[in-house]
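Entry for the shared binder. Reason: the reviewer on the internal report wants the predicted structure included alongside the sequence.
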Amino acid sequence: MIGSFSDCRGVCSRSACVVALASCLLVALTTCAQDFGDHTSATLTGKAWKALADGPAEHVLAYTGKCRELYLAEAVKQQKSLTDFAPTDKAHDAWALNDVGTCLFIEGQVHEKAGQTAAAIEAYRTLADELKFSQCWDPKGWFWRPAEAAAGRIKQLEFDAKLD
């Protein structure tokens, strides 16, 4: 990270360096200002869903990023322990896998909303390739599979890109 104007010499103009520093500060302040609640994966995922519906993209990405930061290692461990989707009565046992997978899906959604197709595909592909057995509880009473939904979004986004 650029820490002073002297760090920018030969890399960018002074005004570009000011913009870069301001952007870094804005991201840092936004992340610091976020209320992560009790920092559990369930809380972070719930806040990410809420922010996706009615908050700025920076808030969504702060929540999903924090969930990944804290729980990705456990999610990968839980993924490796499975050979198929956990049955409904055991699905909650894979809490980190489910929440991090859901957060990756939410990241894809927020990038799509912002017109950032490459970033959306990257989030979806990570989910589909690395956390394919994640499940997300729907308040209507069932689990759905974010990785399968992500694979569908990848196909649609890649198809749309070919048409452009």
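Summary line for the report: Residues 50 and 61 are 12 Å apart (CA to CA).
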